[in-house]
Amino acid sequence: MKHAPCYWMHEESGALAPIVHDYLAGEELGPAEIAALREYFRQWIYTPAFTGMEVEFLRFYVWSIETREDITRWLKQAEAAHVDPL
Predict the structure, then answer these.
(1) Within a domain: residue 28?
(2) Which domain holds residue 74?
(3) What is the tally of helices (H) and strands (E) in the chain?
(4) d(CA 10, CA 12)
(5) How far is CA 22 from CA 4, 18, 32, 33, in A?
(6) Does pLDDT of 77 surpass 70?
(7) Model confidence at 8, in pLDDT bands (50, 70, 90)?
(8) φ, ψ for residue 66 (rounded to 5)?
(9) Per-residue pLDDT, 1
(10) Domain membership flag for residue 3
(11) Is 6 a domain residue?
(12) Are 75 and 84 contacting, i.e. CB atoms less than 8 angstroms apart?
C-alpha cells in the first residue's frame, strides 16, 4: 500500500485537534473551523494510497464542504469507501 496520510492527532501545529474534538462533541463550528477540516480532508483524500470510484467522488465532493452537515455527509461517504480520516 502506498503511504497513508497523517492523522489529525499527529498534526504538528496543534490547531486541528481542538477543531476535530469540537466536531466530534457536536459543538458549533465557524467558517474557519469548517475550512480547516475541509483542507484536512482534502489532503487526506488526495493521498495516492486511496483509489477507486468512491475515492474520486470524495475528491470531487470535498471541495463543496461548507457546513457541519456537509462534513457529516462527506465522512459517511468516506466510511463507506473505507477511508477514515478521523
Answers:
(1) yes
(2) 14-80
(3) 4, 0
(4) 6
(5) 24, 6, 13, 9
(6) yes
(7) confident
(8) -135, -10
(9) 44
(10) no
(11) no
(12) no
Alpha-carbon distance of 60 to 42, in angstroms, equals 9
User: Which tens digits make up the pLDDT trace of 12-44?
Assistant: 777 889 999 999 999 999 999 999 999 999 998
Residue 14, Ramachandran bin (φ over 0: left; ψ between -120 and 50: alpha; else beta): left
What region does 11 belong to: left with phi over 0, alpha with psi -120 to 50, or beta? beta
- Decide if 36 is inside a domain: yes
Provide mean pLDDT across the span 55-82.
94
The pLDDT assigned to 68 comes to 95
Q: What is the mean pLDDT of residues 34-62?
A: 92
Number of domains in the chain: 1
Of all residues in the chain, the percent with pLDDT exceeding 90 is 62
In this structure, the dihedral spanned by the alpha carbons of residues 19, 40, 86 and 72, taken in order and rounded to 10 degrees, is 80
Report the C-alpha gap between 70 and 14 in whole angstroms.
24
